[in-house]
Amino acid sequence: MQDNNGKFGWFIAGAVAGAAVALLYAPKPGSETRQYLGGASKEGAEAVQSGGRELVDRGRELYDRGRRIAEDAADLFERGRKLVQG
Hints:
The chain is an all-alpha fold. It has one domain (2-85). The chain contains 2 helices and no strands. It is rod-shaped, with a radius of gyration of 25 Å. 0% of the residues are buried. The mean pLDDT is 82.
């Protein structure tokens, strides 16, 4: 999971760098550039929200999986204890 977070960070850094270069070389007037930036920032916010939701969903899945494994281990331990006690 660490690897995906690193890739996402580099993606965001690249998007910011690309936006900065685009602003420096933009042939459009200020009002059009501001409108473009508003749309791009909205898209970026939606991408971050979507990524956050995916992380939360994945975290829930991993939590549930871990809980089931722990419950199964506790059940096996209890069964083994009963076998040993006779």
